[in-house]
């Protein structure tokens, strides 16, 4: 079984020259874990997801490695975080894109896609091998649905 | 003599240019030295200073476990609040906190205690973190100079020359205080007096709940007790007849036990694995490889030869030899890395000690070497492991520590600190 069989074709995506505010709205309204980000020609450039969005609101040093055991000392003022988001709303998305995101090809075996889902906890983009153009995505819901639904079996 | 020398020069070349990871260079060079027959494997093992490695590994484990408690974050926040959120005050007081911690634990890892909290404080003040990080790099290298365990060059020198924790504190403590104050004054004029923060941003710092930075209250008393016990044991290491490395591993073992004892066996195994991952194995293997290569060139007689040249050039003057090593140590440590320089210099100083009047007479040379190597590391961003650690954390957090921007201010300031040391060495020891 290859990724092509279970991927969602023509997925929702955002352009890298879009704003963080628009991408955030898409993510929240559609309950997306992550959205593929593409350039003007439709080439996949990375992912922007709910965790990338939330990470913009806390000091970056607090979300890399284990450098700070907690951030509780900063208090509980959500007004400051709202303010911070407001100041980022019109910033270009390309500064927040996760460009290291794993991608698969249509003929990649499903087992590899499941490994990446388990390891990265992110939607997996499916791209064309030569052009890197985005052609589909696999979410963990798609993978799980495919695996738990009864197999149609061979025709009698 | 030629081939071992060539091997050392080539290894230095790779380390300086950074074309290949320094641990890989050292391991390859060490293995080549053995394979080429420059020294036998048993001699190579004998050339590795296990006291140094044990001291480094032990203190790194202690740092790794203590880090989990969050106690040093608490100190950093309280210090910033003592300054009422004033940026100039915070610049000075966080340097002091960094310097003090670096004096009692290895500076390359202790900067990790203060730097993350500093970056949060700078963000809250809406100020660029660069001046704060710069000041903390300097403070960590200066603080580390004061004691046997503060900086790897001191660990190496102390182990090789049989110098104790209190020997370092008595000989180098006074000049470290002077250099630290001078650094604070200079940085105040360069940055501190220009840093301004809006009262609302200062209020953010004052509103921080320092106590909440402590993530594991159980570890706080254990960490303090073990660090205090280690320092006391190092002070009395002479009467105890125990090497510093043994004491550090003993302290690390006790703290590991405190950390894992309340946990179930599966969790214990995970906690111990995590603690061992805090050891900077790149540095440890870098040391091992270099010890072997330097063992090979020592055996070939190269360092004896260079030592005789040095004694000839200085006409056997301890003062001139000390000052040459102070300045050469400072410049080379800034340009290369202070660890390979010190590892190479140690056998040379040992070889010239008899010509200069014996082990006691040569003591100022050891102090000058320690001052030059530790403080010279401040001169460039690649000068010491602490600098690279801060630069790495800053970069991963989106703050670029520009190499030339750092060096432009750091190199002249490092020269100023070495001038102060020059005056001190002449005044104190001659």
Outline of the structure:
The complex is a heterodimer of chains A (156) and B (430). By secondary structure, chain A is an alpha+beta fold.
Report on this structure.
The complex is a heterodimer of chains A (156) and B (430). By secondary structure, chain A is α+β, with helices and mostly antiparallel strands. Chain A has one domain: CBS-domain (Roll), CATH 3.10.580.10. In chain A, 33% of the residues lie in helices and 15% in strands. The two termini of chain A are 22 Å apart. Chain B is built from 22 helices and no strands. In chain B, helix 4 runs parallel beside helix 14, helix 9 packs antiparallel against helix 20 and helix 17 crosses helix 19. The longest helix of chain B has 27 residues.
Shape of chain A: globular
**Helical segment count of chain B:** 22
Unreliable spans of chain B are none
**How confident is the prediction overall: mean pLDDT of chain B?**
90
Helicity range of chain A: 25-40%
């Amino acid at each position: 079984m290859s990724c092509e069989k279970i991927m969602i074709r023509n997925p929702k995506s955002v352009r890298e020259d879009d704003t963080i505010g628009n991408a955030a709205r898409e993510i929240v309204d559609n309950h997306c874990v992550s959205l593929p980000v593409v350039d003007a020609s439709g080439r996949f450039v990375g992912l922007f997801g709910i965790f990338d969005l939330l990470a913009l609101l806390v000091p970056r040093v607090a979300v890399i490695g284990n450098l700070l055991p907690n951030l509780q000392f900063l208090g509980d003022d959500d007004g400051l975080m709202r303010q911070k988001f407001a100041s980022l709303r019109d910033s270009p998305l390309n500064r927040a894109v996760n460009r290291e995101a794993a991608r698969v090809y249509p003929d990649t075996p499903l087992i590899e896609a499941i490994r990446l889902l388990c390891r990265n906890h992110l939607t997996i983009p499916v791209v064309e091998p030569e052009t890197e153009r985005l052609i589909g995505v696999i979410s963990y819901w798609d993978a799980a649905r495919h695996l738990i639904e009864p197999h149609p079996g061979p025709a009698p | 003599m030629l081939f071992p020398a060539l091997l050392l020069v080539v290894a230095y070349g790779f380390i300086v240019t950074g074309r290949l990871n320094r641990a890989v260079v050292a391991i390859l060079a060490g293995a080549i030295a053995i394979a080429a027959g420059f020294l036998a494997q048993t001699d190579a093992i004998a050339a590795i200073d296990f006291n140094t490695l044990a001291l480094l590994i032990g203190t790194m484990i202690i740092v790794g476990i203590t880090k989990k408690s969050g106690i040093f974050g608490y100190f950093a926040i309280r210090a910033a609040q003592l300054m009422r959120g004033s940026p100039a005050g915070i610049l000075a007081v966080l340097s002091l906190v960094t310097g003090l911690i670096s004096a009692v634990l290895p500076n390359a890892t202790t900067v990790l205690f203060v730097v993350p909290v500093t970056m949060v404080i700078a963000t809250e003040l809406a100020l660029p973190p660069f001046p704060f990080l710069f000041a903390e790099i300097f403070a960590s290298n200066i603080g580390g100079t004061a004691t046997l365990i503060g900086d790897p060059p001191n660990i190496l020198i102390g182990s090789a020359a049989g110098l104790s924790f209190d020997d370092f504190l008595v000989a180098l403590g006074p000049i470290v205080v002077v250099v630290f104050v001078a650094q604070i004054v200079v940085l105040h004029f360069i940055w501190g007096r220009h840093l301004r923060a809006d009262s609302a941003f200062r209020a953010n710092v004052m509103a921080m709940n320092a106590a909440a930075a402590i993530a594991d209250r159980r570890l706080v008393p254990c960490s303090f007790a073990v660090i205090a016990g280690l320092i006391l044991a190092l002070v009395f290491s002479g009467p105890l007849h125990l090497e510093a490395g043994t004491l550090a591993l003993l302290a690390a073992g006790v703290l590991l036990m405190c950390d894992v004892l309340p946990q179930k066996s599966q969790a214990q195994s995970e906690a111990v694995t995590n603690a061992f991952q805090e050891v900077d194995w790149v540095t440890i293997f870098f040391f091992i490889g270099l010890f072997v290569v330097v063992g090979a060139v020592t055996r070939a007689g190269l360092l004896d030869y260079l030592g005789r040249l040095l004694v000839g050039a200085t006409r056997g003057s301890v003062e001139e030899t000390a000052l040459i090593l102070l300045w050469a140590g400072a410049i080379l440590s800034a340009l290369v890395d202070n660890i390979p320089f010190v590892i190479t210099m140690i056998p040379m100083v040992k070889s010239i000690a008899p010509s200069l009047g014996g082990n006691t007479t040569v003591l100022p040379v050891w102090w000058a070497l320690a001052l030059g190597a530790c403080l010279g590391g401040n001169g460039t961003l690649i000068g010491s492991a602490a600098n690279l650690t801060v630069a790495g954390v800053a970069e991963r957090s989106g703050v670029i520590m520009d190499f030339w921007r750092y060096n432009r201010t750091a190199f002249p300031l490092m020269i100023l600190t070495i001038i102060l040391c020059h005056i001190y060495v002449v005044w104190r020891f001659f």
